[in-house]
Structure to design on (573 residues):
């Protein structure tokens, strides 16, 4: 019986229109954030990703305030502008004051998020029939995705991938050795801005499905999991995209079984499970195989010690 | 070569690979280098020495425009650096990159060719071949597929040198390439550099070990925010100059 239920949820992707878009939207997010998240992780900018995701929230509020309608593209534009703005504010704080980057990120994250919450509750208090549901951007509500949303997300994701493919070589060398790439003449200022921009787009794609609060884990977890299995950047990006996409599909399907369940947390739990499995079972870096290797090593050295002491005993006996 | 240039009554542009005039670099409000006038002559092994925080790394970074210049001018073979980039190879400090980065030795060496490839062009079999050749020159061909974090410190340093060799430049700016390497690696690196010098290339190296300066180099630059002195080892590498360089808290001469 239970198996049948699971199967029907699975088949729902093909038969159920709503579920199809839900799963597709979440997959698009997972693939995009998975691929781009590799750079966030390798550049040690995980917290930066968190800050710009949180900074997107007031953008949604303002976009709604000005437009008065819940037009999905407009909300995304507002979110993107504020996410970018949040990033710039962080940079400005670090560059012009003595405040260190982690503190600057903390400031940006909480101030923008606070502002976002104030705006959303304000919009709710002034009422109106269409303001409801803005809070779904906090934790995501993939069930609310419709066909046009998914098409928009697809276009944004395609843009991200075109940029990533065109500038792969530059992003790679800049991430690995920034000053060397600068010495070769690559304008790292602009490349940085470009990379940040596509990460902002990935964050915006995630608004509907994961929400601003948990978005950062979609950037970090797939990349961290993928790193466990490969030591090649290209493979890491591909694997990370697969992990992200999988967790998006699985997570949105699970959440679709229960009315009103936020998708974000379920997707995040799914990708965290994948990360957990990777940390334990990956052949080169996983805990399990490391443990086994160490066991074997210590067994070998134990045996060696035994043989040596046995030999010594014999020698002593002979003596 | 020397005769020719003296016959020409040569201008500085012909003799020097790098000419630094009146250079000052300031980080926020802290001066890092002050009013440096200096040149790197061609086909020399040049050491840059000075205490910690004296601006040695800043000096070679300033040549490539990696740090904002407050005042002064740098020219490479008579032109601004941006016009002669392809004549300069750079070896940053080993500690400046994350060696856990998911890449292998060959891939890192290939990065030395990204500048020549330019925008949108991908590394190809040709760049692979050049990278392999350079890795071979530093004696690491057996390690080309090794994840860079699995290499020893000396091997990592040689990978960086191979990357610089791939750049096929006239000037090699190196930030402490002998730091923390074993004796064999040090010998390998030096013999490669010596060959480059014989081909007429200029080697400029930030160097920490004072006792090896006169053995390895033929020219020295002594800095402590100000330029203390520069010239042939025999003339300027004296105890007196060393004392002046390593004096506690060098005062700005304004």
């Amino acid at each position: 019986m239970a198996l049948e239920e699971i199967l029907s949820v699975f088949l729902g992707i093909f038969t159920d229109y709503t579920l199809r878009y839900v799963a597709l939207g979440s997959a698009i997010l997972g693939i995009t954030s998975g691929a781009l998240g590799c750079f966030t992780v390798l550049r040690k900018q995980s917290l930066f990703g968190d800050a710009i995701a949180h900074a997107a929230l007031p953008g949604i509020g303002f976009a709604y305030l000005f437009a008065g309608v819940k037009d999905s593209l407009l909300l995304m534009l507002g979110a993107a502008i504020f996410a970018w703005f949040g990033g710039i504010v962080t940079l400005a704080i670090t560059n012009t004051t003595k405040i260190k980057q982690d503190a600057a990120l903390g400031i940006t994250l909480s101030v923008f998020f606070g502002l976002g919450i104030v705006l959303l509750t304000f919009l709710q208090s002034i009422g109106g029939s269409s303001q409801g549901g803005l809070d779904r951007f906090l934790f995501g509500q993939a069930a609310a995705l419709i066909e046009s949303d998914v098409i928009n997300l697809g276009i944004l994701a395609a843009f991200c991938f075109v940029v990533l493919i065109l500038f792969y070589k530059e992003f790679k060398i800049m991430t690995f050795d920034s000053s060397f790439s600068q010495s070769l003449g690559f304008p790292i200022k602009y490349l940085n801005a470009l990379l940040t921009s596509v990460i902002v787009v990935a964050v915006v794609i995630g608004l509907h499905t994961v929400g601003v609060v948990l978005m950062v884990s979609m950037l970090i977890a797939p990349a961290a999991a993928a790193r466990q299995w490969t030591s090649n950047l290209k493979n890491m990006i591909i694997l990370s995209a697969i992990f992200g996409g999988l967790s998006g599909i699985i997570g949105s399907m699970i959440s679709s079984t229960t009315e009103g369940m936020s998708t974000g947390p379920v997707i995040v739990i799914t990708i965290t499970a994948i990360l957990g499995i990777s940390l334990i079972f990956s052949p080169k870096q996983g805990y399990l195989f490391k443990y086994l290797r160490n066991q074997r090593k210590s067994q070998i050295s134990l045996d060696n010690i035994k043989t040596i002491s046995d030999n010594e005993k014999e020698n002593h006996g002979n003596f | 070569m020397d005769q020719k240039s003296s016959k020409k009554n040569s201008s500085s542009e012909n003799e020097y690979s790098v000419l630094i005039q009146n250079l000052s670099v300031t980080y926020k409000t802290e001066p890092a280098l002050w009013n440096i006038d200096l040149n790197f002559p061609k086909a020399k092994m040049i050491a840059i020495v000075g205490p910690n925080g004296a601006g040695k790394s800043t000096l070679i970074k300033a040549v490539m425009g990696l740090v904002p210049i407050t005042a002064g001018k740098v020219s490479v073979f008579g032109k601004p650096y941006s016009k002669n980039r392809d004549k300069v190879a750079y070896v940053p400090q080993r500690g400046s990159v994350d060696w856990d980065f998911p890449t292998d030795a060959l891939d890192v060496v290939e990065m030395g060719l990204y500048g020549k490839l330019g925008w949108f062009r991908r590394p190809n079999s040709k760049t692979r071949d050049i990278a392999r050749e350079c890795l071979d020159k530093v004696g690491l061909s057996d390690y080309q597929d090794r994840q860079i974090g699995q290499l020893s410190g000396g091997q990592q340093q040689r990978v960086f040198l191979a990357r610089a060799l791939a750049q096929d430049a006239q000037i090699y700016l190196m930030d402490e390439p002998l730091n923390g390497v074993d004796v064999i690696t040090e010998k390998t690196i030096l013999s490669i550099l010596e060959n480059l010098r014989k081909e007429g290339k200029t080697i400029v190296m930030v160097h920490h070990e004072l006792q090896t300066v006169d053995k390895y180099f033929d020219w020295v630059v002594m800095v402590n925010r100000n330029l203390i002195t520069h010239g042939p080892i025999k003339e300027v590498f004296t105890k007196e100059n060393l004392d002046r360089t390593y004096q506690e808290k060098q005062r700005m001469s304004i």
